Amino acid sequence: MTLVNPMKLTCASISLREPHMAELLARELPLPYLEVMADNFLSGRGPHYHLLKQLAERYPIELHCVGFSFGSTLDPDYLKAIARLAVDLNARSVSDHLSLSAVPGGFVHDLLPVTYQESSLQVLCDNLGRTQEVLSQPLRLENPSRYLSYQADCLTEGEMMTELHRRCGIEVLLDINNLYVTGHNLGIEPEALMADYPAAAVRQYHLAGHAQQPPLLLDNHGNTVSEPVWQLYQQALESFGVHPTVIEWDDDLPALDTLLGEARQAERFATRQGDRTEIGGMDRASGIG
Ligand SMILES: [Fe+2]
């Protein structure tokens, strides 16, 4: 049997992946919550869904999505399916990205960046508003990894998030690795990218590993969190406070304990920051931010 590190996690956790579900149920780990990739469970049936329902009885669920395409066309059937899943799992939040995937003639299986300008804000606000009318959970928007920018861009990513928070009341899921990858790929200091974010709106963090493919960094979720990303996470904690932090891993998925090790490292950062600031914005007793 695997030995469990006795360190109690109150802030950091993991994004659930199907190969780890049975082990998570068997080990009864004291995790504060689980993030669940909603798009993998839209059918609401099957053996993995049965496991998920059992996990949802044990852990609070943060529902994460990739199919809304808030930057282009909202699919009402997808929205209904996500809302149904959120109720069924008693999810406490729903998130997706500041991006688009639905394009004329089909759906690209990627998170394409929107142009950072007023016309995009209007489309986004319309779609976010319609989504909020259906969901009963807070809606969070995540910064995507970007590999290109547009000549039409006239707002920064942080200014886009600020406007969306002001106009629609959305919360921000700040992916620290995405921020680092975007900064590298676009030649912008990631600290400068982060400086424009609306501090009052940040409610959750993502951490993950990336791959080097010179001259680019690829957000492949296939490695441990890199040292510069840990440093950027520290800066985010100082700027925006301690919030629930999720470790994401997809490519070359390792053993569950490797993900838990990364979560414990995030917990150490959050605890040190919490000790300094007496836990701004985070209820450490319950682990619920
Ligand atoms: Fe993420």
From TrEMBL:
Gene3D superfamilies: Divalent-metal-dependent TIM barrel enzymes (3.20.20.150). Residues 270-289 are annotated as: Disordered. InterPro entries: MbnB/TglH/ChrH, Xyl_isomerase-like_sf. This is Uncharacterized protein.
